[in-house]
Write a structure and sequence with these properties.
Elements (H helix, E strand, L loop, with lengths): L1 H6 L3 H16 L2 E2 H8 L3 H13 L3 E6 L9 E5 L5 E7 L3 E7 L5 E8 L6 H18 L7 E8 L3 E2 L4 E2 L15 H6 L6 E5 H12 L6 E7 L3 E7 L2 E2 L31 H4 L1 H12 L10 H10 L3 H25 L3 E5 L1 H5 L1 H13 L8 E4 L6 H13 L6
Parallel strand pairs: 4-7, 7-10, 11-14, 14-15
Antiparallel strand pairs: 1-3, 2-3, 4-5, 5-6, 8-9, 11-12, 12-13
């Protein structure tokens, strides 16, 4: 079974695991390319390829175009050799996704969170849903590599605990040992990471950005960032992903829930926008934060110039905050994620313009919307599980 193969960390098996990872990363590769990458004797490589193919981990996908000699033989991984689950726990929803080894979605569950959705209610619902999916697809724990969770922080990743996330609809999410709760039901590896980090993993691996450093930025009910340097996470401490929301952009600015003044989050989150609409325009807006985005978008669609001005000013603040992060980390690619990013082009354009206007050094940095969108956090959780089996080769 693929799972046992990946768990085998013996020196004899490690080269085969590296070979499997190479084929997985390149999606489709030839024996010639593998010979060039691994510098193995051709007979040794041929034997290893035969073993991986014979055990059902990779398959021959046909011949390529010849370039003066025999046509090259290409190989790819077997998609259904094993499966992985990725979970996204956000402030307003939960998404869980079953994927194959190509990280292709086989099934997804999604439900919104409301004020009554405490951990005692939600986590059993997640467990029941996952069991139903596994039963439907006839997947047992021998072929399930694990469950990767991307969540709002701050987190204790080592202990698998969601600490005290802010802006949750339900207020009871405090010191939740989610990994331990899931391990009572599933005897597989389970990881917990900040959702911005898992989303960065999704962009990194699914777009084959193996030489790039990735900054992934989420803005909505909170501000979160994830950073990868050649596939390795730079955000590993408790609260790291949410720290971006507490970059001070105006030392004498608005008071933040953290006790400081002028934090980025006080100018850019949905709740911050609603609060400014209330203060500047004098409108009465429902305090139900789940409806904050809908209210903002309805106002923009009606071409409310006052709301438009507030939203675009917020985009400028967001761009300033991100430019500070970029000036320190020097990523090669920046991905922007959030409903305003996707649904209000003027907001996205203002964020990008402000970032570029405030970069310390003009580089070849690419700034773009997330290519994966709403599925990125859950998919990245699945990818992190896969990567955990190959950590010695990353």
């Amino acid at each position: 079974m693929l799972k046992q193969f990946l768990l085998d960390s013996s020196e004899k098996n490690n080269i085969k695991k590296q070979l499997y990872k190479f084929i997985h990363t390149h999606k489709r590769t030839s024996k010639i390319e593998m010979l060039q990458a691994f510098h193995l004797p051709q007979t040794t490589l041929t034997r290893m390829i035969y073993e991986l193919e014979n055990k059902g981990y990779i398959l021959n996908v046909g011949k390529g175009e010849p370039s003066g000699g025999r046509p090259p033989t290409y190989y790819a991984i077997v998609p259904d050799a094993a499966y992985i689950i990725g979970v996204d726990i956000s402030r307003t929803h939960v998404t869980a996704m079953l994927t194959n080894m190509l990280f292709e979605e086989l099934e997804r569950i999604h439900f919104k969170l409301n004020r009554e959705d405490t951990p005692e209610k939600v986590i059993p619902d997640i467990i029941d849903s996952l069991k139903e999916i596994l039963k439907k697809h006839q997947i047992n724990e021998d072929t399930l590599l694990g469950i990767g969770i991307g969540s709002v922080g701050p987190l204790d990743r080592e202990k698998g605990v969601i600490l005290n996330p802010d802006s949750f609809v339900a207020k009871a999410w405090l010191d939740v040992p989610i990994v331990q709760m899931l391990k009572r039901e599933f005897s597989v590896p389970i990881t917990l990471n900040n959702g911005a980090n898992t989303a960065a993993y999704a962009e990194y691996y699914l777009n084959s950005l193996v030489e790039d450093s990735i900054l992934y930025c989420i803005n909505g009910y909170g501000v979160r960032t994830g950073f990868l340097e050649r596939g390795l996470s730079g955000n590993s401490q408790a609260g790291d992903s949410s720290a971006a929301g507490h970059i001070v952009i105006d030392i004498n600015g608005k008071e933040c829930s953290c006790g400081k003044r002028g934090c980025l989050a006080t100018y850019t989150t949905y709740d911050a926008l609603i609060k400014e609409i209330q203060e500047q325009i004098g409108l009465t807006v429902s305090d139900n934060q789940v409806n904050a985005f809908e209210y903002i978008m309805e106002s923009l669609e009606k071409n409310d110039t006052n709301v438009k001005e507030i939203v675009l000013r917020s985009a400028s603040y967001y761009g300033i905050g991100l430019s500070n992060i970029i000036n320190i980390l020097h990523p090669t690619k920046v991905f922007l994620h959030g409903k305003l990013i996707y649904q209000y082009p003027a907001y996205y354009q203002e964020v990008v313009k402000t970032i570029k206007d405030n970069l310390y050094i003009n580089t070849n940095i690419t700034i773009q919307k997330s290519t994966i969108g709403e599925k990125s956090v859950a998919l990245g959780g699945a990818i992190e599980i896969f990567n955990s089996y190959l950590n010695s080769q990353t």
